[in-house]
Design brief:
This protein is mainly beta and 109 residues long. Helix content is 0%, strand content 61%. It has a 4-stranded antiparallel β-sheet, with no helix packed on it. It has a 3-stranded antiparallel β-sheet with strand order 1-4-10, with no helix packed on it. Strand 5 and strand 6 form a beta hairpin. The two termini are 15 Å apart.
Length: 109
């Protein structure tokens, strides 16, 4: 996602990333400070562990399937979606699973 600050003020932006399966869930965010007129590209690298949920047996599990990731200026102002398919076998994860996406913020000219 690319952000550009417009107006007269320097702003902080919180860029959330959510996915829907079966309900929308926040899996991370980035706090980005931009001066007026500045832009930055925000990239999220999402591990399959972040799609885990508690199964009927009480264990955290990751299942293959299609996920729709949404990005925006806030949870109430999502401006972009990306569909992605997770492949592989159903697997169980424990307390050592990845809990946050890897976020990269690169200023643009």
């Amino acid at each position: 996602m690319c952000l550009t600050a417009n107006g007269n003020l320097c702003r902080f932006h919180a860029v959330p990333i959510t996915f829907v399966r079966p309900v929308r869930r926040l899996i991370g965010f980035a706090r980005v400070e931009l001066a007026v007129g500045a832009s930055a590209r925000v990239t999220f690298r999402v591990a399959g562990d972040l799609t885990s949920f508690t199964g009927r047996d009480g264990r955290r599990r990751v299942e293959p399937g299609e996920f729709v990731f949404a990005f925006g200026r806030s949870a109430g102002d999502l401006v972009a979606e990306l569909s992605s398919t997770l492949t592989g076998e159903v697997r169980h994860v424990d307390h050592s699973r990845r809990l946050h996406p890897i976020v990269t913020i690169v200023p643009e000219s």
